[in-house]
């Protein structure tokens, strides 16, 4: 019997490669998300520190110039925190899109794998049927002629 050949093997390989690329893209997106989240945490910590400093200076009765400088610095820190929050949102959106593309690639590969497995099962069944047919023919050929000529009992 000839060996099993799946006609869509090259497409199957391409789908596996596409799935791996999508997994890597999703992994990179998650790493970027984590980095952006750490940046946001640092920005928020810096803003809290700046606000504590401003509150402390206000309580201590600092000069107007010092308070204005600290307030300006807190405004800069707020802007930085908002930029970091926007970056986190953007990286999460990219990660969500990468996840969506990865799940599509997985589904496409799994569908082709199921078709491959079904084709392989059908090929094996055909091989077994052909093998059984060959065994049946051998059995018929080996029977003595006298057995074949006996009349059947009523």
Number of strands: 0
Seen as an oligomer or otherwise, the chain set is single chain
Distance from first to last alpha carbon:
41 Å
CA radius of gyration is 36 Å
Q: Which whole number gives the mean pLDDT?
A: 91
Structural class, from helix and strand content?
mainly alpha
Shape: rod-shaped
Query: Strand count, sense and closure of the main sheet?
Result: none
- How large is the share of residues in beta strands? under 5%
Order of helices and strands: HHH
In short:
The chain is mostly helical and 154 residues long.
Description:
- The chain is mostly helical and 154 residues long.
- Helices cover 88% and strands 0% of the residues.
- The protein contains 3 helices and no strands.
- Helix 1 runs antiparallel to helix 2 (64-142).
């Amino acid at each position: 019997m000839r060996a099993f050949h799946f006609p869509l093997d090259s497409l199957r390989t391409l789908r596996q490669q596409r799935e791996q690329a999508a997994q890597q893209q999703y992994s990179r997106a998650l790493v970027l998300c984590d980095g952006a989240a750490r940046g946001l945490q640092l920005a928020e910590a810096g803003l809290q520190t700046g606000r504590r400093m401003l509150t402390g200076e206000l309580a201590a009765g600092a000069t107007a110039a010092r308070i204005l400088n600290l307030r300006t610095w807190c405004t800069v820190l707020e802007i930085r925190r908002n930029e970091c929050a926007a970056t986190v949102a953007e990286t999460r959106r990219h990660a969500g899109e990468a996840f969506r593309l990865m799940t599509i690639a997985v589904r496409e590969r799994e569908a082709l794998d199921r078709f491959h497995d079904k084709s392989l099962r059908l090929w094996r069944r055909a091989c077994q049927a052909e093998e059984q047919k060959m065994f049946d023919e051998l059995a018929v050929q080996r029977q003595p002629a006298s057995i074949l000529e006996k009349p059947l009992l009523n």
